[in-house]
Specification:
By secondary structure, this protein is α+β, with helices and mostly antiparallel strands. The protein has three domains: 4-65, Beta Barrel (OB fold (Dihydrolipoamide Acetyltransferase, E2P)); 68-137, DNA polymerase, domain 1, CATH 1.10.150; 141-200, no CATH class. The chain is built from eleven helices and five strands, in the order βββαββαααααααααα. It has helices at 32-36, 68-78, 85-94, 97-105, 109-112, 120-130, 134-138, 149-161, 166-180, 182-187, 190-200; strands spanning 4-12, 16-21, 24-29, 44-53, 60-65. A five-stranded antiparallel sheet has the order 3-2-1-4-5, with helices on one face. β4 (44-53) and β5 (60-65) form a beta hairpin. The longest helix has 15 residues, at 166-180.
Amino acid sequence: MISYVKGILTEKSLNHAVVESNGIGYFLIISANSYQNLPDIGDNVCLQAYMQMSSQSDQINLYGFSATEERSLFRTLISISGIGAKGAIKILSGISPGRFAEVVASEDVAFLTKLPGIGKKSAQRIIVELREKLPALTDKKQAVPGMDTDRAEEVIQALMTLGMNAQESRKAIEKVIETAGAKEARSLPTEEMIRRALTAGR
């Protein structure tokens, strides 16, 4: 799993960026919002990343985000039936994560239908499915005692994609830390932390 890509920005457009790191150029699909936050070509850049294999082919796509909150919302959106990665990127190009959370909280169906690719039924489904997940979108600090904030946020979002809500995810992570001990828990790979948390949450 690639968590982020850090290097020299060698190419950018409204829908992609190329970052060179250690002689390798990483092609990342980005939103228009992330594009606005990119530095000039030739400057250093660090993009949060999400890797996904296409369901229609063996192609692996790498998505890049200028902020952790945008990547979190992307993961949440693709967990909703009917919204794929391309659709999520289009949505992120039209609204910031904070504004999106506000719209969902106010159940503003009319506003959601103005976003690319969202009809009335999709907007209603988004509101219904994100009610419990909304705190994870609005709270930038997914604090879990004994774990780095950024890592906790990443694990929580992964668990939510797998069916847990934010509160259940935190409790499951806390159980893993309590069972393994803070020192061992810090050394666990993210994938193993997610696996153990899933077991603890059952």
